[in-house]
Amino acid sequence: MIPGKLRSVSGRATNNVNCGLHLVIQTSSFPEKNKVELRLNKETPSFPGRLLQHDLERNYSSRQGDHINLVSSSVSSFHILQRSSEEKILYSDRLTLERQKLTVCPVIDGEEHLRLLNFQHNFITRIQNISNLRRLIFLDLYDNHIEEISGLSTLRSLRVLLLGKNRIKKISNLENLKSLDVLDLHGNQIAKIENVNHLCDLRVLNLARNLLSHVDNLNGLDSLTELNLRHNQITFVVSIKMESM
């Protein structure tokens, strides 16, 4: 069942709640007829789907890639990334490897100062070879073939994690990412919200286009201002309790 505190887009059920959360869910296969929305009195913007990602990348990323080489290693099956001196000077804190037809993350040595890493639009199946990038704050793996969240435990400074349009079935292995501000998992195969209660600084959680039927396990997300659950199979919402409510 849908709590009466939620305000319908059509204007019905106007028993509003005084909180800091913007929640958009779809309660049936007829989104225009039965969409429910919980808005906030804080004036925070809404960042649906890819718009969120584009806005964030505009602040961090730039064109690059002409001077990047992937060299085969004689001691492992992974490619080793090499950048020219010019590339390192121009983009000292960021690295873009989108649309490189990568199936694995290359070894990235001598780049411990990186703050942004972009692997968009590749064929990567597993997150690996980035545990040494401990200053990383922005990691974009949108549109790959990743099946499991892993390989992130050392990235304690990470604030933006974009894993939309992958093959992830479970939210897991985020225990050490306590500084996360944005977590984008839209377009995956997730059936349950779990293992996020410790993310007390998380402001944006995007779970649109997954396989969710229940909305629960959100306790502890005290900073959450944007929760996107569009295009799921939501039947009811269970016990949403937060400090801001």
Automatic annotation (TrEMBL):
SUPFAM superfamilies: L domain-like. InterPro entries: Cilia_flagella_integrity (IPR050576), Leu-rich_rpt (IPR001611), Leu-rich_rpt_4 (IPR025875), Leu-rich_rpt_typical-subtyp (IPR003591), LRR_dom_sf (IPR032675). It comes from the Eukaryota. Keywords: Leucine-rich repeat, Repeat. Gene3D superfamilies: Ribonuclease Inhibitor (3.80.10.10). This is Leucine rich repeat containing 49. It comes from Pipistrellus kuhlii (Kuhl's pipistrelle). The lineage of its organism: Eukaryota, Metazoa, Chordata, Craniata, Vertebrata.
